[in-house]
Amino acid sequence: MIRILIAEDQAMLRGALAALLGMESDIEVLGAAPDGETAWRDLQRLRPDVLVTDIEMPGLTGLELAQRIQRHELPVKVVIVTTFARGGYLRRALDAGVSGYLLKDAPAEQLADALRQVHRGGRAIDPQLALEAWGEADPLSDRERKVLRLAGEGMGAQEIAAQLNLSHGTVRNYLSEAIGKLGVGNRIEAYRLAREKGWL
């Protein structure tokens, strides 16, 4: 049996994924978490073989979850199922040790086959995205990415500093670096461009 945990913040989709995958004779759905932090706790408690996760989730994104799994060397394979058809996301996912990356509009049987492939030690990557991913490299550091994401969500430098335990000046430096690297005029343009490229 392939023991899986699902992490997806949209309740209807979470339920649909669990129901669809639960119908497969060789797949057992151990649980379905509504956010990244819950998924992280469930991972340690349930010890699944494969985590099926979205990228954008409250608190801890699917990519941050994959990075944490990699850092703690948990024996869990990660398959991302997302609407984000951007090469930048795939590159970051592969850097975080993700074994599968599929789009939500792919047929359901493709997901089950991908899980089997990943469980056997293979990779399951959307082929069109794989080509795109080797285009432009992501110029942002992890810190620049975090700061820029919060700025794009409407936080001021002082709030970002408090949330990330940084000084106000350090936050301004990270934003300035990100703006410079992306060759744009301000933090909003930087956020927009980085989102478009899949770097956030």
Quick recap of the structure?
The protein is α/β, with parallel strands linked by helices and 200 residues long.
Describe this entry's structure for a reader.
The protein has a six-stranded parallel β-sheet with strand order 2-1-3-4-5-6, sandwiched between helices. It starts with a strand and ends with a helix. The chain folds into two domains: 2-133, Response regulator (Rossmann fold, 3-Layer(aba) Sandwich); 142-197, Arc Repressor Mutant, subunit A (Orthogonal Bundle), CATH 1.10.10.10. The mean pLDDT is 89. It is built from ten helices and six strands; from the N terminus they run βαβαβαβαβαβααααα. With 200 residues, it is of the alpha/beta class. Residues 133-198 form the HTH luxR-type domain. One of its GO terms (molecular function) is DNA binding.
Please state the overall shape, judged from the principal axes of the Cα atoms. Answer: globular
Number of distinct beta strands: 6
Give the CATH architecture of the largest domain.
3-Layer(aba) Sandwich
Report the portion of residues in β strands. 5-15%
The class by helix and strand makeup works out as alpha/beta
Q: Give unreliable regions as ranges.
A: none
Work out the radius of gyration: 18 Å
The mean pLDDT is: 89
Tell me the strand order in the biggest sheet: 2-1-3-4-5-6
Describe the sheet with the most strands: 6 strands, parallel
CATH class of the largest domain: Alpha Beta
CATH superfamily of the largest domain: Response regulator
- Please trace the helix and strand order, writing H or E for each element: EHEHEHEHEHEHHHHH
Estimate the helix proportion, in percent: 40-55%
| Whole-number total of structural domains | 2
How far is it from the N-terminal to the C-terminal residue, by CA? 35 Å
CATH fold-level topology of the largest domain: Rossmann fold
How many helices? The count is: 10
**Looking at the chains present, what oligomeric state does this protein adopt?**
single chain
